[in-house]
Design goal:
Chain A: It is found in: Cell inner membrane; Cell membrane. Chain A: InterPro entries: MetI-like (IPR000515), MetI-like_sf (IPR035906). Chain A: Belongs to the binding-protein-dependent transport system permease family. Chain A: Residues 78-283, 357-563 form the ABC transmembrane type-1 domain. The complex is a heterodimer. Chain A is an all-alpha fold. Chain A has helices at residues 13-30, 34-58, 65-105, 111-117, 126-136, 142-151, 167-178, 180-203, 208-219, 221-237, 240-245, 250-259, 264-288, 312-347, 352-384, 388-397, 405-430, 444-467, 471-479, 484-495, 497-513, 516-521, 529-539, 542-570, and strands spanning 106-107, 307-308. Chain A folds into 2 domains: 29-57 and 349-539, MetI-like (MetI-like fold); 61-290 and 314-348, MetI-like fold (Orthogonal Bundle), CATH 1.10.3720.10. Helix content of chain A is 75%, strand content 1%. Chain A has a two-stranded parallel ribbon. Chain A is globular and about 85 Å long. Chain B is of the alpha/beta class. Chain B has 2 domains: 4-125 and 256-302, D-Maltodextrin-Binding Protein, domain 2 (3-Layer(aba) Sandwich), CATH 3.40.190; 127-254 and 314-336, D-Maltodextrin-Binding Protein, domain 2, CATH 3.40.190.10. Chain B is built from 14 helices and 10 strands. Chain B has helices at 3-25, 37-51, 64-71, 85-93, 103-108, 163-176, 178-190, 200-208, 220-226, 232-239, 269-279, 282-292, 305-308, 320-336; strands at 28-33, 54-59, 79-83, 97-98, 120-133, 155-156, 214-218, 241-244, 255-263, 295-296. In chain B, strands 1, 2, 3, 4, 5, 6, 7, 8, 9 and 10 form a 10-stranded mixed sheet that branches. Chain B starts with a helix and ends in a 5-residue tail after the last helix. Mean pLDDT of chain B is 89; it is low at 1-25. The chains are: A mainly alpha, B alpha/beta. At the A-B interface, helix 3, helix 11, helix 12, helix 14 and helix 15 of A face helix 1, helix 2, strand 2, helix 3 and helix 8 of B.
């Protein structure tokens, strides 16, 4: 801290304050690790740009929008959104925690297989599960046909069951595919963090059930909060399933305002208001557990000794864990397979499908690598500099996930388009060449959208992984002469491998399913499985779509299996 | 660990840039379309075969206008293709199109089916019709009568906010004014057999499934279902219904259009006009009719037999521009009566 003393010449006190601030900022940045701060700031800025672009859009004004909304839309939409989020939040938490506890605390037949099979519903996008169940449970579908045959009715005109298109239906279906967002972090927490304390509780003679309530659940609270909030962001993002199932959520209002009324300013206003609400909710949760500290389990993470179940309890545990897998993955996958097979016999396999599968895989893999690297930088910078400022940067970097993807994509479009125009003008003026659309034309804008949208997942998971590593490890490593980079490589990365793998899985699967940003921002002649599926579904040719849907599910299974292997090696 | 993705990304970016610059030199043109790829592909294939011009496409369901606007003068878009007159009018309002003076287009597209300033041209039409259960004992229905209590609990329809429906409601407003439209929407809402939602084809499926007796839907889906192109299951839905061409009491059947406009900064303007002119040729209009079961816009062009079986189409004379003007208010009326709730 030798230079920049020239700044301190000021006399008036505000100026002195300012220069003191500049000095302290400069000293932080000149610390070893300044790279982490700068990189982290840059990443957060990247995420904020589209949000600001939307703010600029929103400021264009939309006449009479809010009085119309307040009178005719919000009362209903707010109620529906609250009900949907409360329902899906409870359902994902209950399923996620229950199965995570069963597979970590007990031993029963099929447990090892279930540990990773419970992740499979992740591979099924919300819009696909909605479509599949709508068809299976339609009066003409296999289920009701069977019921009619059993009861002796000939025609659906004589007998039919209530419609799945309802709030209850939406909650159940979304819950079935979103619970892995809770299961994944909570299981990791149970396996590592809780193990030691549960062992202690066990020696003290506490029963397993009481351990769940008294020890494991309170310890897993951050993981439950992160998992549930990720699931709820997915709910806020959903348009397809809500449309299929007739739920008129706020997200649908945003979409309608934009598409049907061509009122982008108004849509941005509603989306930003939703963003504020989400940020408020998340802050509230963090504030509520502000006094607790969750780090420090000094021993090497190991799983707890599993209690072997006997008799009926074994089968009960197995059935409870199997149910979400069967309903959330096996049934839809079977249905898609038969539909795809019908289509295959009818029209064969379109040659484009292979290209699209490759596009999907390559794009998602590249984006995942970038999102993981950025997430690591942001989370690690916040660990290196635990001051408030860096915490805020970390929160800012996670904002993109709290907005419906369609709207965030519009923000990216405005930002990337503006930059592309600027690059184009500059290149024409200075070099006399026309570079075309550098960002949108190359797919970089799309990668940017994935980064802005899914960074929250990787920051959150990496952060959760890092908090489990005691700070004393950092100090020991540094005392032994390891720099920041070396400590990261030799201490933190190996210890948070499972968390990184989990983040990678979630991000990859999310990129692969992503539809709205991909539709809006992809270059010419570039299709992914999701856009193909959407094109067919929009035309109503669902059989053709079934093949693409099945392909999405299949590509999505790959990382699930990969993750399971990493997890098993670690466990 | 950090550098690998960036290297790969750069590689991906540079190949795409090369591809993009290559595209500008050859005989190519770039089409931004909000029509589904499966629908336009047969037309583009035929165009490429007859002219040798390759067509690069990007299918943008929503946000066509936003995308072209953001790309500004750097946009590679030559031709913008969209469904619904309102969407085409939006493109013009946002200054994203340019006029095309072409005798071929003027001769092929009737005046009421193109922009007064020749900014956009309709290429095909679809009617908003009634699917009815086969055994229903009536063969004529007015749009107005859909709100009559006799239909209570018997009608299926998709979301009231869908452009197909807001356009129909806008047309209703053009005939009867806002107050009467609100009343009518309230009556229609009360007659629904299930919550408004799903797609047009679900109307036929739900009629077969016993949920409703009639459904409001677009004409071309009937062709896709009854021809068997969508597979056996959809054929069964299609065979369960008959089609009634409804009319306004003082008018005809509501139609909407698909159309296209040349982009303001089109780098391949000539090729874009060439494609536009091709799309109203006898050959292309035949493909619209036979492959997509739409009504051709060109006077005298034949419709598909399945579509012809509905009877003579009396197009409602309300100008498309009126429908476009009413669209926002119609959408607000849908909210006011809680149509989708």
């Amino acid at each position: 801290m030798s230079a920049s003393t020239t700044e301190t010449a000021g006399g008036a006190s505000p100026r002195r304050l300012l220069s003191a601030a500049v000095l302290s900022a400069a000293s932080v940045l000149r610390l070893r690790g300044g790279f982490w701060v700068w990189a982290s700031l840059l990443i957060a800025a990247l995420v904020l740009v589209p949000v600001l672009a939307l703010g600029w859009q929103a400021a264009q004004g939309s006449e009479g929008l809010w009085s119309h909304l307040a009178r005719h839309v919000l009362p209903h939409a707010l109620g529906q959104t609250a009900m949907l989020m409360a329902g899906v939040g409870c359902l994902t938490a209950v399923i996620g925690i229950t199965v995570a506890w069963l597979v970590t605390a007990y031993d029963f037949p099929g447990r090892r297989m279930l540990e990773w099979a419970l992740l499979l519903p992740l591979a099924v996008p919300t819009y696909i599960i909605a479509y599949v169940y709508l068809d299976m449970l339609h009066p003409l579908g296999p289920f009701q046909s069977l019921v009619r045959a059993v009861l002796g009715f000939d025609s659906p005109r004589d007998f039919r069951l209530p419609d799945i298109r309802s709030m209850t239906g939406a909650i159940l279906l979304l819950g079935l595919v979103l619970y892995p967002y809770v299961y994944l972090p909570v299981r990791a927490m149970f396996m590592t963090q809780a193990a030691n304390l549960v062992e202690v509780a066990h020696t003290l003679g506490t029963s397993r059930r009481r351990m769940l309530w008294r020890v494991a659940l309170p310890l897993a609270r951050p993981a439950i909060a992160i998992g549930t909030s990720l699931a709820l962001m997915e709910v806020l993002n959903d348009i397809g399933a809500s449309e299929f199932l007739g739920v008129r959520s706020l997200t649908i209002s945003v979409y309608t305002t934009w598409v049907t009324r061509s009122d982008l300013a108004g849509a941005s206003q509603i989306a930003l208001a939703m963003l504020l609400l989400v940020v408020a909710l998340i802050s509230l949760e963090r504030w509520a557990r502000r006094k607790q500290r969750y780090s420090v389990s000094a021993q090497r993470a190991r799983s707890m000794a599993r209690h072997p179940l006997k008799g009926a309890a074994r089968w009960a545990a197995l059935s409870v864990c199997l149910l979400p897998v069967v309903l959330g993955f096996v049934l839809p996958a079977l249905y898609l397979t038969t539909e795809a097979w019908k289509r295959f016999q009818f029209a064969g396999l379109s040659a484009r499908l292979l290209t699209e599968a490759w596009n999907t895989f390559a794009l998602s893999a590249l984006a995942t690598a970038a999102v993981l690297a950025c997430g690591l930088i942001v989370a690690y910078a916040a660990r290196l500099f635990p001051q408030r400022g860096m915490q805020a940067v970390q929160r800012a970097a996670s904002l993109g996930y709290a907005m419906p993807g369609t709207i965030l994509a519009l923000g990216i479009l405005i930002a990337a388009g503006g930059l592309d125009r600027w690059i184009g003008r500059t290149a024409r003026d200075l070099l006399g060449i026309d570079p075309g659309l550098v960002l949108i034309g190359s797919g970089l804008a799309l990668g940017y959208a994935y980064l802005a949208r899914f960074l929250a997942i990787s920051v959150g998971s990496v952060e959760a992984g890092l908090t489990r590593i005691p700070r004393s490890y950092d100090q020991s490593a540094r005392t032994l002469g390891h720099g920041i980079g070396s400590t990261l490589r030799r201490v933190h990365l190996p210890l948070s491998r499972a968390a990184l793998a989990a983040a990678g899985l979630l991000v990859f699967v999310d990129c692969m399913k992503e539809l709205s940003a991909t539709l809006l921002l992809r270059p010419l002649n570039f299709e992914t499985l999701a856009t193909h599926l959407y094109g067919e579904a929009a035309r109503g040719t669902y059989e053709e779509a079934a093949i693409a849907a099945l392909a999405i599910v299949l590509v999505g299974i790959l990382p699930v299996i990969l993750l399971a292997r990493v997890g098993q090696r670690n466990g | 660990m950090k550098s690998a993705p960036f290297v790969l990304r750069a590689a991906l970016a540079s190949t795409a840039i090369l591809a993009a610059t290559g595209a500008a030199q050859a005989q190519e043109l770039n089409l931004y379309t909000s029509r589904e790829p499966g629908l336009v592909e047969p037309l583009l294939a035929a165009f490429t075969e007859s002219t040798g011009i390759t067509v690069n496409t990007v299918f943008l369901k929503d946000g066509l206008a936003e995308r072209v606007a953001s790309e500004g003068e750097s946009s590679p878009a030559d031709l913008l293709m969209a469904v619904d007159a309102g969407n085409l009018a939006d493109l013009v309002d946002k200054g994203l199109t340019q006029p095309v003076e072409s005798e071929v287009l003027a001769a092929a597209v009737p005046e009421n089916l193109r922009d007064p300033g020749n900014q956009w041209f309709a290429l095909s039409m679809r009617a908003r019709v009634i699917y009815a259960a086969k055994d229903l004992d009536t063969d004529s229905i007015t749009y107005e009568s859909l709100a009559d209590p006799e239909w209570k609990g018997r009608i299926c329809i998709r979301s009231g906010q869908h452009p197909y429906n807001t356009a129909l409601f806008s047309a209703f407003m053009a005939h009867h004014g806002a107050a009467e439209t609100e009343e009518w929407l309230t009556g229609l809402k009360a007659n629904l057999a299930r919550q408004a939602g799903g797609g047009d084809r679900d109307g036929a499926k739900d009629i077969l499934g016993g949920i409703c007796d009639i459904a409001v839907a677009n004409s071309y889906y009937v062709g896709l279902m009854q021809s068997g192109k969508g597979g056996d299951e959809q054929r069964a839905w299609g065979d369960a219904i008959k089609v009634i061409l409804p009319t306004f009491e003082d008018g005809g059947t509501h139609v909407n259009i698909s159309g296209a406009a040349v982009a303001k900064h089109a780098p391949n303007r000539d090729q874009a006009v060439q494609l536009l002119e091709y799309l109203v040729s006898d050959e292309a209009q035949k493909i619209y009719a036979e492959a997509n079961y739409e009504y051709p816009v060109k006077p005298g062009a034949a419709v598909d037999p399945i579509i012809a079986s509905f009877g003579e189409l009396q197009v409602d004379p309300t100008p498309l521009t009126r429908i476009v003007e009413n669209r926002k208010e119609a959408s607000e009326l849908v909210d006011r009566v809680g149509f989708d709730n």
